[in-house]
Amino acid sequence: MARLPAIALAYVLCDIAAGGEQPPAAWLEAVNTIGPSALRAQVSFLASDALEGRGTPSRGLDIAAEYIAAQFRRAGLEPAEDDGYFLTAIVTPQMVDPKGKEDPGWKEAKVRNVISLLRGSDAALKDTYVLLSAHYDHEGMLPPGEGDRIYNGANDNASGVAVLLQVAEALGGMKERPRRSIVFLALWGEEEGLLGARHYVRHPAFPLDKTIANLTLEVMGQPDPAGNGALAKAPLTGFDYSDVGPSLAAAARRAGVEVYKHEPFSDDYFNRSDNLAFAEAGIPSHTLTSAYGYAEYHRVDDHWDKLDYDNMAKLARGVALGLLHLANSPQAPRWNEANARADRYRKVRQESAAGLPSPP
Known about the structure:
Radius of gyration: 19 Å
Shape: globular
CATH topology: Aminopeptidase
Structural class: alpha/beta
């Protein structure tokens, strides 16, 4: 038998692991609690006019942060810092591109990433981490004038946050936990240049060299109108940059979800979301979405009632199974040596990682 390239071998091994070995019944039971009603409720609040588009910084962003922390608390997840579920930073006007907004007249403001932990079960691996993230900010409001002024950001990215929260809730109550720990992280300032993600990389709650993978959730609410994204399909950026892609795909099939490489956008969009900040720190990191384009993108009519919550629920179940598979695997994901586009991230990992624990 000819030797398989590393990424092809990963496909085979992950198919064996996810297809040949049934996940524990407790995992399937937990994942199947994810449904459309809770997703609809969370998106409709986060994308409501009351939150005024969740600009960075803003009163609406602060309200969203408190809401997300309350959901983590309700799910029974551990706080990760002395400040509870918050990682606080200072943002200044010089850091933020106003993008035509009304002059806010502020000098600096506090902003917060929101973080929680599902602690792993294995003595050797519980201090290694899989990171699930989504940004909760959006574009805020237009200057005073007639008509709709609020960028509600239902699909971008209240949908990603809602999926993160539902996965957190589903997994938070499980007694049978995966080997590794799972970190849930809601980020501010993505729309202003990945600011919250870059701040986390500079001030991580958990060591970056012990963080084995990141999955970023972005725009999960509508199937791709371009035709390649249908119901229960989710393209992944940089799909073959690391073996996270095939691992996630193999596990998500259990939920009837196809995680796949979208040509050409999976590569083109790799540097368009928070995953880039984590990849630049050497962590195998990708963004999962339901579409690379939709009609209401960065428009004031990106409203909660336009999303497909049944499809979101199915995608969320796929995310949950994929996350559990990554967190339970004895082997940490690796960047693909055969893909030149992954070289810069792989070299950072090689230079910075002190080695990740493995079971005996």
